[in-house]
C-alpha cells in the first residue's frame, strides 16, 4: 500500500497484527514498518518522545552540552531529534531493527549505532560511560524485557541518569509487565544500584490502537516516566 493513502484504520490493523509476535519476528516487523514509522506514529498521536523530552527539559538537573546519551531502542531517531533541540549533542543509539537503525543514521545525530536484540543479546555499551541513558517506547511485554533494566543502569556512569518511559496498555500482559518492572526498580534501589529522582504520569501518550473498537472504552493510553540516578559506589 502506498503510504500517502494510509488511514488510521490501516495503522490500527497493522499494530494489532503484531501484538503477539516473538522478539525476532517483532524486529522483522519493525524492519518492514521503518519507512512509514514516523508518519504512522503521527497518525496514532504517538507523543511519547515529545512528552519524555519535555519531562527531561523540566527535570534533568545537568547542562546537556557535554553529556554522552545512550538512546536505547532508538528506532528512527525521533528521540535524538527532539533532545538535540534541548542542546544534547552526543548520541549513541541501540536498536534490534536494522531498518530502524538505517533511518536513525540518516538523522546524522548519532556518533554510533549498534544492532542488538535486547534480552537475548547483551546491551552493546561499556559500563559506566553515559551521563544519560534513555529508553522510550520499548519497555513493554514482548519488547525489551525487565531484565535489561540492570544493563541500562550499568551503562550509566556513576552519578549519571537513566530516564525510562512505559505505556499503560489495557491488557493482562501489560499489567504483569508493569508489576515486574516496578518490583525490579524497587529491588535495584534496595541493592543500592540507583535512586529514584522522580516519576510522572503522562496523559495522551498515544492513541489506544491495540484494542479493537469493541474492547476500547478510552481513545488514548496513558504513560509513565521514571528518572533514576546511578549510585556513585
Ligand atoms: C515504538 S518504537 C520506539 C522508538 C523510539 N524510541 C521512539 O520513541 O520513537 C520501539 C523500538 O524498540 C525496538 N525494540 C523493541 N524490542 C526490542 C528489543 N528486544 N531489542 C532491541 N530493540 C527493540 C524496535 O525495533 C523499535 O525501534
UniProtKB/TrEMBL annotation:
Domain Methyltransferase type residues, every copy: 70-163
Keyword tags: Methyltransferase, Transferase
CDD domains, sorted: AdoMet_MTases
Coiled coil: none
Biological processes annotated in GO: methylation
Domain of life: Eukaryota
A GO molecular-function descriptor: S-adenosylmethionine-dependent methyltransferase activity
Cross-referenced InterPro entries: Methyltransf_11, SAM-dependent_MTases_sf
Listed name of the protein: Methyltransferase-like protein 27 isoform X1
Lineage: Eukaryota, Metazoa, Chordata, Craniata, Vertebrata
